[in-house]
Amino acid sequence: MVNKPIDVAILGATGAVGQRFIQLLEGHPWFRIAELVASDRSAGRPYSEAARWVLTGNPPGELGAREVLPLDADLQSRLVFSALPGDVAKEVEWRLAGAGHVVCSNASAYRMQPEVPILLPEANAPHAALIDVQRRLHGWTTGGIITNSNCTAAPVVMALAPLRPFGIEAIHVVSMQAISGAGYPGVPSLDILDNVIPYIGGEEPKLETEPRKMLGALDGEKIAFLDCVMSATCNRVPVLDGHMVSVSVRFGESVSEVAILQAWTDFRGPDPVPGLPTAPNPPVVVRAEPDRPQPRRDRDVGGGMATVVGRLRPDPVLDGWKFVAMAHNTVRGAAGCSILNAELLVENGYV
Amino acid sequence: MVNKPIDVAILGATGAVGQRFIQLLEGHPWFRIAELVASDRSAGRPYSEAARWVLTGNPPGELGAREVLPLDADLQSRLVFSALPGDVAKEVEWRLAGAGHVVCSNASAYRMQPEVPILLPEANAPHAALIDVQRRLHGWTTGGIITNSNCTAAPVVMALAPLRPFGIEAIHVVSMQAISGAGYPGVPSLDILDNVIPYIGGEEPKLETEPRKMLGALDGEKIAFLDCVMSATCNRVPVLDGHMVSVSVRFGESVSEVAILQAWTDFRGPDPVPGLPTAPNPPVVVRAEPDRPQPRRDRDVGGGMATVVGRLRPDPVLDGWKFVAMAHNTVRGAAGCSILNAELLVENGYV
Amino acid sequence: MVNKPIDVAILGATGAVGQRFIQLLEGHPWFRIAELVASDRSAGRPYSEAARWVLTGNPPGELGAREVLPLDADLQSRLVFSALPGDVAKEVEWRLAGAGHVVCSNASAYRMQPEVPILLPEANAPHAALIDVQRRLHGWTTGGIITNSNCTAAPVVMALAPLRPFGIEAIHVVSMQAISGAGYPGVPSLDILDNVIPYIGGEEPKLETEPRKMLGALDGEKIAFLDCVMSATCNRVPVLDGHMVSVSVRFGESVSEVAILQAWTDFRGPDPVPGLPTAPNPPVVVRAEPDRPQPRRDRDVGGGMATVVGRLRPDPVLDGWKFVAMAHNTVRGAAGCSILNAELLVENGYV
Amino acid sequence: MVNKPIDVAILGATGAVGQRFIQLLEGHPWFRIAELVASDRSAGRPYSEAARWVLTGNPPGELGAREVLPLDADLQSRLVFSALPGDVAKEVEWRLAGAGHVVCSNASAYRMQPEVPILLPEANAPHAALIDVQRRLHGWTTGGIITNSNCTAAPVVMALAPLRPFGIEAIHVVSMQAISGAGYPGVPSLDILDNVIPYIGGEEPKLETEPRKMLGALDGEKIAFLDCVMSATCNRVPVLDGHMVSVSVRFGESVSEVAILQAWTDFRGPDPVPGLPTAPNPPVVVRAEPDRPQPRRDRDVGGGMATVVGRLRPDPVLDGWKFVAMAHNTVRGAAGCSILNAELLVENGYV
Predict the structure, then answer these.
(1) Residues C32 and C146 reside in one and the same domain
(2) CATH label of the domain that carries residue A301
(3) What single DSSP character describes residue A69?
(4) Which of A82, A147, A226, D64 lies at a C-alpha separation of 20 to 30 Å from A211?
(5) What is the DSSP secondary-structure string of A20-49?
(6) Is B243 an annotated catalytic residue?
(7) Residue D282 preceded by cis peptide, ω within 30
(8) How many domains does chain B have?
(9) Could you write out the DSSP letters of every residue in A238-304?
(10) Region A331-340: what's the mean pLDDT?
(11) Which among A101, A127, A243, A328 is annotated as catalytic?
(12) What is the pLDDT of residue D136?
C-alpha cells in the first residue's frame, strides 16, 4: 500500500467546489494538498490573490501563499481531485489519466462513459473495479478516472440504495436545490431572493439517468443500469447549501413502512467503506419529526456527508412510497464525495 | 337584481387575509366595505389600532377610523366575506347563513360539507347552485355558504380544469408555498431564512381531496367527485407570496403537447364568469420560457388572479405530463377568489 | 413648446435600469419610446431576445419586437435617457449632446463636471439652467447633459432639502442598500443571502460629495457647494429594492422636532415641479410609526418616487438630529428621477 | 479552588439562548449541565418535549430525557446561567443570589444596578470585584449576580476597549442586527424577508448607556462610567446570526491609523482572561479586505467568541475614525459571554 500522507492536486482550486476541497482536506489523515491548479487567469499567482474565498470563515492559512499552477502543468501528485467545469475537464482529465494520475472528478464529462464509474461508495463501491477496464481499454498504466454524481443525484441514490432489495421500478423526484450548486458567482441575487426558479439547465436529464447507472450492478466489464423509469423536476430555492428532494418510488413487491425504515437504519454500505476516514456513520440518518429534514438544520449532519431522510408515507399515485431526502450538495454531493471515493481507491490499491 | 354598490362585511378583518380583502375591495365597482368584524380582542377599537398592517404600502385611509365590530354583532350587510380561522368560522358562518347572509368563506370548516361548494368560478361555476340545496335543507331563506379552496389547491385546479376533457386519472403534486400562506405572525424567520420546511400541518390531506371535489360535476343535488387518485407533498419556502406547484398528471387517453397548450390558452370558464369584474383574462397564462413561472415575477399577473403555467413536458413515471403552475396565494388563493365568487353569486341572483 | 408626445431614446435599454425606464415610460403622458439602444452584443436583435427581463411581471409587449440599435446609431429622438455604464457613458453622452440631443443620464461620468447639474427637481430645479452654460462653453446648439444622483444620495438629499433653511453643517450617513443597486447580474446570491456586505466599491466617495453639490446654490454660472462636512458608510443588505439611510445632521442653529416635521410635511419643491407628471405629491412622506420607513413596505409610495422618512430624534453625538429615510433606488434613485428631470427640462423649454 | 467539573443550572433552558448555552457547554472542560430550568409550561416534562430545538443540527442527545425543573426549584448547582426574560429574571435571579448561587445572567434586569457588573472579561475583568460589594450590601454569603451586555453592545465595547488609552470622547453606532437576537419565535418572516426594520424596541437606550458602564473604571466600590457621549441607531436585517455595527469614534487626542490597528492586534485583555477555556485568541480579529467583516462569513471566528473588525478610515464629521465591527450575537453577545464570565469568576474564587 502507498505511503501516507499522499500528495494530492486540486484542479479548479479557485472555484467554489475547489475551495470546498481545500476546506475538507485540511487535517485529512491520508491526503496532503501538494498542488493547486487553475485556469490561465489564476496560474502563476498566489492562491490567496487568485481565489475569492466564498466559504464561511477565513481563506486557508498556509495555502494562501502557494502559487497556482496552470492546467498544463506537469503534476507530481498521483491523486488528482478535479473541480473543473465540464468542457475543460474533458480534455484535462483524460490527459492526466493517460499520464498515470488517478482523477477523482466532479465534472459530468465522463459520467456516462461506460467504463467510468459514478461512484458513491456506500451505494456502489464495486463499480470502482471499472478502473481495471479503463486501464486495459486505453493502455493506461497507473491512471484512471472516477466521477461522482450530480449533486442532486447524491441524496436520491443514497436514500434508494438501501431499498434496492425491494425492487425499484419507478422513481419520481422533485428537487429544491441550494444556490451553491451553481458555483460562484452563480445565481444572481436578483433572481432568487423572494423567489423560486423552477428550472436548472441540463439538470433534469442528468437526474433521470445517473441514478440508474449508480444503482446498477457491475456485470463483468460494464454496469447494467437499474431497470426503472425516472422522472425529475428541478427547482432552485433561496438556500445556501443542502439539496432537498421529494421522492416517490414504486417497488416490484409490497413493502411495509417498517421494512423501509429498517433498511435505512441498518444501511452501512459494503466493506471497506464504513471504515474510511470520510465515511459518515451512519450514512443515512432517519428523522422522526414531521418537518425534517431541513436544509439549514440538517446539512451538516455527519460532517455534511450524511443523507438525512424523513416523512415516509404512502404515495397513492405511484402505488408506492414517498419521502424527503436531503444532503449537503458541495460536501456529500461534490468535494466530500470525491474525497471518500479517493479513500476507497487507496484502500482498493488503485492509487 | 340587487342595487349596487352592495354593502359587505369582512369577518376577521384584522388578519393577513382580512387585510387583503380590504386592499382588493378598494375601488371595487360593485362592493363597498360597510362593516369590519373581528375577535373580542379587536372589537370596539378603531381599525387602524386593532390591526397591524402587514401588506405593502399604507394602512387603509378612511377605514382606519372605522370601529371594529364583535363577532356576534348584528350585521347589516347581506354579503359577508369571512377570513376567520377554522374553529371560529364554523360557528359564526353557520349562524350568519341562518340569519340570511350569504357568506363567502376562506375557512376550511365547511369545504367538505356535501351541500357546500368549493367555488373556483372558471373551473366550476355551476357548483354555485348548491346554495339552493342549502336553503331547502336548512330552511335558510336568503342565506348560504360558499367556500373557496385551500390556497394551494387553487393553481392545481385552475391548471387542470381546462384538461378535464382528456380524462384526468392521476394527479401528483409537490408544492413550494409562500410564507404568507401561514398568516401573521405565521412562520418565524428563524425557521425559514436559508431553509425549506418540508411540511405544512394539515395541508396535504386537503390538497389530496379538495381538488377532486372542485373538479367534480354537479349531479343533481350533489357533486360527483372527480374519479382520480391524488398525491400531495407540501413545502414551505422563503417566498413572500405565490404558491408554486410541480404537477404530474395522467390522462385516460393519449394527449399531445399541443392539445394541452391549446386547452390552456383557450380556457375562459363558463359564462358569466369571464365578464365578472375580478375575473382575470385569460385565467390561465402560459409562459414559454424554460424558467417560468416564478413566484416573484409572475404572482401579480392578472392582478394576482391569473394562474401562470409553464414547463410542460412528458412524465415517464406517470406515463403522462408534468408542468409547473403558480398563483398568488392570498389573492387568487384567498381573498381575491372569494370576491370573484361573490360576484358570481350576485350575477346569479343569490345575493 | 415642443409637440407631445415626444420621442425618446433609451441607451443601455437591456440592463436593469434600462428595463425600469421602459416600465416607467409605459403610458407616460408626454414621452413615447422611439428608440432602444444597447451595446454591440445586443444591437440588431429584437429587444425581447437581447434583454433578459429581470423586473416583476412580463417583458414589454409591443417593444419586444423592436430592433435594438447600436451605440453609434444616428438617433432621431431629441430626448435621450442614458442607463449606460460609466465608461461607455462618458464618450457616448458627450457625442450625443454635441449632436443636439438632451441627455438625461444615470451614469456618474459627468456628475462632478462643474457645468453639469445633478438634478433632483424638488431640491434643486434651478440647477437646470446650467444647460445654457454647457451650450455656450461647448458650442452645443440644442444639446445638453443632465445627470441624476447616485441612487443612495437621492433619499439623503430629498430628506435634507427641506431642512436647508436651518443651516446644515454636518451630515453623517450609514446606508443599507438594496441589491438592485448593483444591476444585473450584480450581487451573487452566495454573497448576500443571510449576510450584509459592509462595502460598495466607489460608493462612499460619491455619497460624501454629490449631496453637497445637489444641495448647493446656483451662483451665476456655477454651483456653490453646500458648505458642510459629510461622512458616509455604505452597506449592501438582502433587500430587492429600496435604499435606506440612517442620517444624522447638525444644524447651524437650534431646531425643534416640530420645525423639522413641519418642514418635511410642507415641502413641495419649486414651481413647476409639483405639477410635473411624474412628481410625487408630497415628495417627502413622514411616517409616525416607530418602525418605519421599511424598504419593502414603503418603496412604492408615490409610485416609487416619494422619499419616506421617520424616526426623528436627537443625536447627542452630533448635537443635532437623526432620522431614517428611504427611497426606491431604481425609481426615485435612477430611471424615475431621470424622467422627472426630463419633464422639468421640457417645461423649461430645453427640449 | 472548587473541584471540577462544576455542576451548573440553566434557567430558561428551552428558549433560543438557553439552547445556545446547552450547545456551548457540550464538552466544556470545567462545567457540567446538572439542571435545566424553565417556566411552568415546560416544567416536569422531558427537555426534548418541552423545547423546540431551533439551532442547527440535532437536539441534545442525553439531555433530551432530562426533566425540566420549575423556576422555584431548589437548585443544587452553585453556578447558574440565566437566559430568562427580563421580568421573570428580576425576581428569580435575586432570590437565587440570596440563596448562595452565583448567577451569570443574560437578562437586562440588573445591568444598570450600581453594584452589578456588566462583564466582558477582556474589557473589564476587574469589575468582577463588585461581587464583594454585593455580598456586603445584601448580606449574601456565597451568592452574586453578574450580567453580560446587550448583544449589540458586545462588539462595540470589544472593539473600543483596546482604544481607551486614546481617550474616547464620542461614540456613534448604527447597528444591523440578526434575527436570532429577538429569540424564538421572534421576528415573523413576513416582517423581515426582503426588508429591513429600522427599530428594535428598547435597544437604543441600552446601547447608549451600557457601553459607558462597561468601558468605565472600577473606582472603589462603584464603576465610574466612561465620560463620553453616545448615539445609537438599531436596525434588524435578514441575517440569522451576527450583529454588525458601523461605529464612529472621536478621541481626545490625535490618533493614527497605525496606532489603532496596533491596539486592536495587540489586545488580549488582562490576566487571567487570555487563559480561560472559552476566551478567543485573539479576542479582536482585524480583517484587511475592504468588504469584511460580514456576519455570515465571520460570525464563527474564534468559535463565535471573537469580535471581527475592519474598514478603519477617518470620519470627517466626528473628526475621528470609523470602522465596522461584528460579533456573534448569541455566542459572544449572550451565552458564550456568560460562560466566559463564569470561568473568570471561578478563576477569581467567587464560585
Answers:
(1) yes
(2) 3.30.360.10
(3) B
(4) A82
(5) HHHHHHTT-SSEEEEEEE--TTTTTSBHHH
(6) yes
(7) yes
(8) 2
(9) S-SS-EEEEEEEEESS---HHHHHHHHHH---STTGGGSTT--SSSEEE--STT---HHHHTTGGGG
(10) 97
(11) A243
(12) 97
Q: Would you state the pLDDT for residue D1?
A: 57
- The string of pLDDT tens digits covering residues A169-222 is 999 999 999 999 999 999 999 999 999 999 999 999 999 999 999 999 999 899
- Contact at 8 Å (CB) between C200 and C234? yes
Q: Which residue range(s) make up the domain with C86? A: 6-150+335-347
C220: left (phi over 0), alpha (psi -120 to 50) or beta: left
CATH number (domain holding residue C104): 3.40.50.720
Residue D81 · residue D345 · CB < 8 Å:
no
pLDDT tens digits, D195-215: 999 999 999 999 999 999 999
Among D54, A160, A289, CA closest to B198: A289
CA B335 vs. chain centroid, Å, equals 7
DSSP secondary structure code for residue D65 in this structure = G
Cβ pair C165, C266 in contact under 8 A: no
Question: Considering chain B, what percentage of its residues have pLDDT values greater than 70?
Answer: 99
Examine the domain organization and report whether A136 and A254 are in the same domain: no
Adjacent-strand bridge partners of B8: B33, B79
User: Residue B105: inside a domain, yes or no?
Assistant: yes
Interface of A with D (CB under 8 A): 55-58, 193-194, 296-298, 300-301
Q: Is residue C1 part of a domain?
A: no
Catalytic pick from B28, B104, B151, B328?
A: B151
Question: For cell 401562470, what's the residue?
Answer: B308
Which of C203, C233, C287 is the best substitution to test chain D (most D C-beta atoms within 10 A)? C233
Q: Which amino acid appears at position D50 of this protein?
A: A
DSSP, res B346: H
Nearest to B325 by CA among B226, B191, B207: B207
Query: Residues C110, C129: one domain?
Result: yes
C-beta neighbour count of B13 within 10 angstroms: 27
Contacts 24+ apart (CB under 8 A), C48-56: C50/C14, C51/C13, C51/C14, C51/C18, C51/C19, C52/C14, C52/C184, C53/C19, C54/A190, C54/A191, C54/C16, C54/C19, C54/C184, C55/B297, C55/C16, C55/C19, C55/C20, C55/C23, C56/B296, C56/B297, C56/B300
Rounded Cα distance between D329 and D187, Å, is: 15
Chain position carrying cell 376577521: B12
Task: Report whether pLDDT(C27) > 80.
Answer: yes
Grid cell listed for A40: 490561465
The answer on pLDDT for B22 being more than 80 is: yes
Contact B298 C193 (CB under 8 A): no
Based on the domain organization, do B162 and B115 belong to the same domain? no
Is C201 found in the same domain as C84?
no
Is A28 an annotated catalytic residue?
no
Active-site residue, from D28, D104, D151, D228: D151
Q: Which of D160, D168, D195 to mutate to test the interface with C (most CBs of C within 10 A)?
A: D195
Do the Cβ atoms of A58 and D193 come within 8 Å? no
**Phi, psi dihedral angles at D313 (to 5 degrees):** -160, 160
Average pLDDT, chain A: 95
Q: The C-alpha cell of B276 is what?
A: 365578472
Cα separation, D294 vs D284, in Å, equals: 15
Q: Report the C-alpha gap between A136 and A140 in whole angstroms.
A: 7
- Contact call for residues A349 and A272 (beta carbons, < 8 A): no
ipTM of the complex: 0.95
The beta-carbon neighbor of B57 closest among C56, C58, C300 is C300
Residue type, D156: V
> HEC profile for B55-75?
CCCCCCCHHHHCECECCCCCC
Q: In this predicted structure, what is the pLDDT of residue B204?
A: 98
Query: What distance lies between CA B340 and its chain's CA centroid?
Result: 9
Q: Could you tell me if residue D1 is inside a domain?
A: no
Structure confidence by residue, pLDDT tens digits, D240-272: 999 999 999 999 999 999 999 999 999 999 999
> By C-alpha distance, which of D318, D310, D306 is closest to D294?
D310
